[in-house]
Design goal:
With about 70 residues, this protein is mainly α. The protein is about 75% helix and about 0% strand. It contains one helix and no strands. The longest helix is centred in the middle third of the chain and has 57 residues. The protein starts with a helix and ends in a 13-residue tail after the last helix.
Length: about 70
């Protein structure tokens, strides 16, 4: 029960008749903005996670300066 090219063109024609070309353009641009906002939000979360992880990684690599003393046996 697949859709052939003729069925898809008829469906597109019905959608254009119902909504009109102007509304379809607005819907398309709104959908594009929503997808872009979602991607920016996901990138923001990754950057935020990277920034939060950076200080702990720096703390792990920091050198601790200590003085060792030899233990003498008496």
């Amino acid at each position: 029960m697949g859709l052939s090219m003729g069925h898809l063109l008829l469906l597109l024609l019905v959608v254009v008749l119902i909504f009109g070309t102007k509304k379809l353009g607005n819907i398309g641009s709104d959908l594009g903005k929503a997808v872009k906002g979602f991607k920016d939000g996901m990138n923001g979360e990754e950057e935020k996670n990277a920034q939060n992880a950076a200080p702990s990684q720096l703390a792990d690599k920091a050198a601790i300066d200590v003085e060792a003393k030899e233990k003498t046996k008496s």
